[in-house]
Design a protein that fits this description.
Elements: H1 2-14, E1 20-27, E2 33-48, E3 52-59, E4 65-71, E5 74-80, E6 91-98, E7 102-115, E8 121-127, E9 130-133, E10 139-145, E11 148-151, E12 156-165, E13 168-171, E14 174-183, E15 186-202, E16 205-223, E17 226-230, E18 236-244, E19 247-249, E20 256-257, E21 265-271, E22 276-284, E23 287-291
């Protein structure tokens, strides 16, 4: 009998601990703050019409607890894991928040996906992709190893997007923007800008959008081509330079060699009244500058 009990206990101890299902709801302010933290797994945030925060999904088998609490107008959603981390902490969370909430989402090894949230967004992960919708709200989206994508509605906002290893893609974003990638592409498609600062170390830079009156565009790469297509009326002082690469200009003026003894090219001219500014530079790569 003792042997049978020992075998049974051993079998039970050897059984894997299953992930825990979570389904919890708290009342929330219609335009409050929601802070979300999940070390590993995935985080999906959706804005809805209810004045409540709902958390559904699964917690990893070694997660200590889900901290889900409200203090005044701030709701906290945090997956607490053992100090040493380890396996079995991956948690997949789907969080519904009041549509006008401001959110601060942080992760280490998790993807972040945000839709229909109208408040300010601060989104940070170390290893994972970040995807966000912007509808008249400012967005800060960062990853170390992963792609970053922000999809706007052409409202004037402030957008900051960056990654070390991955692509940054901005669709229909307008206003002021800062985007950078160390290894990957930066793509800006549609929209119009009062200021756009775009930087890439190793990768291509593509800009197909407009400049507002007096708008400024700075596009710089170290190793990679730059393709700029200005949409609509253009009125700017334009300065383009390369070290190892040619310049193709669809506006008319021809580039010149910077030196008889060096490979670089430069191009300076004024289009329209010249009330804006366009600065484009690359070390290793060509530049194409056109108008749509």
């Amino acid at each position: 009998m003792k042997k049978l009990i020992a075998i049974t206990l051993g079998f039970l101890l050897a059984m894997p601990v299953l992930a825990e299902e979570v389904d919890e709801t708290l009342d929330a302010a219609p335009d409050g703050q929601v802070d979300i933290s999940n070390i590993a797994g995935s985080i999906t945030v959706t804005g809805w019409s209810r004045d409540a925060v709902e958390v559904t999904g699964t917690l990893g088998r070694n997660v200590e607890e889900l901290i889900f609490e409200r203090k005044k107008d701030k709701v906290t959603v945090k997956v607490k894991v053992p100090r040493h981390g380890g396996r079995g902490i991956d948690s997949d969370l789907h969080i519904n928040v009041p549509q006008n909430s401001s959110i601060d989402v942080s992760a280490v090894s998790a993807d972040i996906d945000v839709t229909d949230v109208l408040g300010e967004q601060r989104l940070h992960t170390v290893s994972g992709d970040v995807s966000a919708e912007s509808a008249g709200n400012d967005v800060e989206a960062e990853s170390v190893s992963g792609d970053v994508e922000v999809d706007g509605d052409k409202s004037d906002t402030e957008t900051n997007a960056s990654t070390v290893s991955g692509d940054v893609t901005l669709f229909r974003v307008s206003g002021t923007v800062s985007a950078e990638s160390v290894t990957g592409r930066v793509i800006v498609d549609e929209g119009s800008f009062s200021r756009a600062d775009l930087n890439v170390v190793n990768g291509e830079l593509l800009f197909q959008a407009g400049l507002q009156k007096g708008g400024k565009l700075s596009a710089e790469t170290v190793n990679g081509a730059v393709d700029v297509e200005l949409v609509g009326d253009v009125s700017a002082k334009i300065d383009v330079s390369t070290v190892n690469g040619r310049i193709r200009n669809c506006f008319g003026p021809e580039p010149e060699r910077t030196s008889k003894y060096a490979p670089g090219w430069s191009l300076r001219f004024t289009e329209g009244d010249g009330d804006g500014r366009v600065d484009i530079s690359t070390v290793n790569g060509g530049v194409k500058l056109c108008r749509k």
